[in-house]
Amino acid sequence: MSRFVSTSSIFAPAKLNLFLAITGRRPDGFHELVSVVAQLALGDTLQLEPDEGWSMTCGSSDVPVDETNLVLKAARAFAAATGERRGGRFHLEKRTPVGAGLGGGSSDAVAALRLLNARRAQPLETRPLTELAASLGSDCPLFLADGPLVMRGRGERVELLPQRAARRLSGRRVLIFKPAFGISTPWAYGQLAAGAPASYRPAAEVEAALARWIEGEDPAETLLWNGMEEAVFRKFVAIPTLLDELRSAFGLAARLSGSGSACYVLVEKDYDVSPVMQAIRNAWGESAFLMDTYLR
Ligand code: C5P
Which pTM does this prediction carry? Predict the structure, then answer.
């Protein structure tokens, strides 16, 4: 008897925090934030094939494929929530760098949830799926949305940007670059909690600034803000050094993404990025990750 094998595949985009304000620390230790996030054309591909039990492989050797991988955690959480008995074998083609603040692992986990949900006769509705995603990580729910969005709370409250504002982001060209080292997200938040109180911005002030940008006509460049930068830049000085150079030499809007270590600059469609790429290579060497991509 031949075994029926059907492989399904899905794109798992990376994300950029174009605006990231941390408004305080919660009693549970997590931070309250208000963030404008856009997904990128850069991302991973996740495949699922029916199998007994759960397993995964990855095209890149520096990604663990054991139970610590969020893809397998997502699969087990999905099975527990739905009573699903079938297992599966995942294969991940990794393109998003890890430890970058680009949400790669979170996006892979949501891709797994989407693949598993798609093969069910009665898929989970958006709400339980969002709750499941939030239980896996603060940056997971945003990957269930399609288009630029605002995320609040610890990341579990996601709202699509109004179309007029989303149009000022979607399709914008960005250069993403990351030094050879990564930055741990818990470490970065720990720095805020341990003594960078100036990094917290009052929620009312943040919401007012965001509402002005959403309702106005200003381009993406005027939105960019990252409240993590101060704490991260104090230790990883190679990052502000390069960002300052890109601002002064090329007049570009340059920021850290999330807790880093990836950074980005916004550029016009026809902009010649070769001198910018050369400046990045000069500062961070050949092992730096560099990608010319765009916001979805
Ligand atoms: O939710 P996730 O597992 O991705 O978060 C990793 C760590 O980052 C948390 O343990 C916490 O230290 C920090 N974090 C936070 N506030 C957030 C998101 C993450 O303090 N909103």
Answer: 0.96
